């Protein structure tokens, strides 16, 4: 199968490129390097020994995307491209709505004009409402999002679902669309080679890259955002999923999308919650020394508990996560310790 990964030079996209190539599929990548570099794709080629067709372009640029998609005519598009920093989205909502919504609209217009049929979309557990009780099933209500980033995911899910519905009726569409919405829980870890991994710009927003940078000596200590939650150790619990498990989920989702029509949504998580302090301790085991931390105030917008009911992906896609937190921490540490400054060194 021919696949085109928008945002494929990014963290999840580059790992998915490896999984796709290893499953025997062809991969093209379109990225504008807003949050990544072409080096990630050079390393994907090194890991797999296979070539990736790489295009530098803005996915919102319709003229350019028409050229690229005409040249590639992929069987499936996997749409990772987007801005994803929750805090930044509060400060820069216009840029977030413009970029995230426009990329999806442009892809839908191009797909309609070219008769391309399947798209897999990177959504997030952030669409679930705060009132839902974990484990979240796909049918749990989508809630009020607490930030513009979350709303862009919510809206993109809706846009893709509506387009699939309209395409069934023909009209302007040459063929019915197949849309797969993947709601990721907390993607972490790195490819086991240590050649690719998460390379956040500036101060990391997320727990695992922050812990990794403390462990490698780039930062002094982690601040744990609150230890007064109603959980066994007082810290929030999340569903941390190894990025290679997530990547393999995309292979299954793209294969599924190529054979079905309409819209399907799947949680990609492990179903196993871990607290912030459990992750800090697990990382200490992996890197061989304690990770310094201090307890701070709660972070605005954090939910106490979030984990997946991942049984639908198992039943329908035949996929389930197989890597645990010790592998997650081992691989994150392998990447961080061999690339202390990320892709620049
Ligand atoms: P990332 O920032 O590493 O990757 C996104 C990629 O998209 C980057 O390479 C960036 O340069 C590119 N990009 C952004 N706007 C673009 C545009 N207009 N044209 C071309 N390229 C563009 O992020 P990631 O963690 O790999 O996330 C991938 C997707 O998964 C995103 O849509 C993100 O919102 C979603 N997601 C991520 C998480 C997470 O915790 N990492 C959780 C849920 C959902
Ligand atoms: N945390 C800390 N200190 C830090 C960073 C995080 O204690 O320096 C805590 C948070 O309070 C939270 C947990 O670690 O309890 C996980 O936080 P992350 O920021 O790593 O992840 P979130 O669950 O808040 O959010 C992530 C992505 C969102 C996505 C969501 C659901 O950042 O984009 O998962 O998929 F929407």
Provide a compact summary of the structure.
The protein is of the alpha/beta class and 345 residues long. It has helices at residues 11-22, 39-48, 62-72, 86-91, 93-114, 148-168, 207-215, 243-259, 276-287, 311-317, 325-338, and strands at residues 2-6, 26-31, 53-56, 76-79, 118-124, 178-184, 186-188, 222-225, 237-238, 240-242, 262-268, 274-275, 293-296. The chain binds nicotinamide-adenine-dinucleotide and uridine-5'-diphosphate-4-deoxy-4-fluoro-alpha-D-galactose.
- Number of β-strand runs: 13
Mean pLDDT: 96
Largest sheet: 7 strands, parallel
Distance between the termini: 34 Å
**Which strand order spans the largest sheet, edge to edge or round the barrel?**
3-2-1-4-5-6-11
Bound molecules: nicotinamide-adenine-dinucleotide, uridine-5'-diphosphate-4-deoxy-4-fluoro-alpha-D-galactose
| Class per helix and strand makeup | alpha/beta
Q: Kindly provide the radius of gyration, computed on alpha-carbon positions and rounded to a whole number of angstroms.
A: 19 Å
What low-confidence regions span 5 or more consecutive residues with pLDDT below 50?
Answer: none
Question: How many helices does DSSP assign?
Answer: 11
Helix content: 40-55%
| SS strand fraction | 15-25%
Order of helices and strands: EHEHEHEHHEHEEHEEEHEEHEHH
What is the overall shape?
globular
Word description of this protein:
It is a single chain. The two termini are 34 Å apart. With 345 residues, the protein is an alpha/beta fold. The chain has a seven-stranded parallel sheet, with helices on both faces. A two-stranded parallel ribbon has the order 7-10. α6 (148-168) links the parallel β5 and β6 (178-184). It is 41% helix and 17% strand. α1 packs parallel to α2 (39-48) and α1 packs across α8 (243-259). Bound molecules: nicotinamide-adenine-dinucleotide and uridine-5'-diphosphate-4-deoxy-4-fluoro-alpha-D-galactose. The site of uridine-5'-diphosphate-4-deoxy-4-fluoro-alpha-D-galactose has 21 residues, from α7 and β8.
């Amino acid at each position: 199968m021919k696949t085109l990964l928008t945002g494929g030079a990014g963290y999840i996209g580059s790992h998915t490129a490896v999984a796709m190539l290893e499953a025997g599929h062809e991969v093209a990548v379109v990225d504008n390097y807003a949050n990544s570099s072409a080096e990630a794709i050079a390393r994907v080629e090194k890991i797999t020994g296979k070539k990736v067709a790489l295009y530098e372009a803005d996915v919102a640029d319709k003229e350019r995307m028409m050229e690229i998609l005409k040249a590639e005519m992929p069987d499936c598009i996997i749409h990772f491209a987007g801005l994803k920093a929750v805090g930044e989205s509060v400060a820069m909502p216009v840029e977030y709505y413009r970029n995230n919504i426009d990329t999806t609209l442009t892809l839908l217009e191009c797909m309609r004009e070219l008769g391309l049929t399947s798209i897999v979309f990177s959504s997030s557990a952030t669409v679930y409402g705060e009132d839902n009780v974990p484990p979240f099933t796909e049918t749990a209500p989508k809630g009020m999002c607490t930030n513009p980033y979350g709303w862009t995911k919510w809206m993109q899910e809706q846009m893709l679902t509506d387009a699939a519905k309209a395409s069934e009726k023909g009209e302007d569409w040459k063929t019915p669309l197949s849309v797969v919405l993947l709601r990721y829980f907390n993607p972490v870890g790195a490819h086991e080679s240590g050649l690719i991994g998460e390379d956040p710009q500036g101060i990391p927003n997320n727990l695992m890259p922050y812990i990794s940078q403390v462990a490698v000596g780039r930062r002094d200590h982690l601040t744990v955002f609150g230890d007064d939650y109603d959980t066994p150790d007082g810290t929030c619990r999340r569903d941390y999923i190894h990025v290679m498990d997530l990547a393999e989920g995309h292979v299954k989702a793209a294969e599924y999308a190529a054979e079905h029509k309409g819209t399907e949504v799947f949680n990609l998580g492990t179903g196993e919650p871990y607290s912030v302090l459990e992750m800090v301790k697990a990382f200490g085991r992996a890197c061989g020394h304690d990770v310094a931390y201090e307890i701070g105030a709660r972070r605005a917008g954090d939910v106490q508990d979030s984990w997946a009911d991942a049984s639908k992906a198992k039943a329908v896609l035949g996929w389930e996560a197989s890597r645990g937190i010790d592998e997650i921490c081992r691989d994150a540490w392998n990447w961080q310790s061999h690339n202390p400054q990320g892709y620049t060194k």
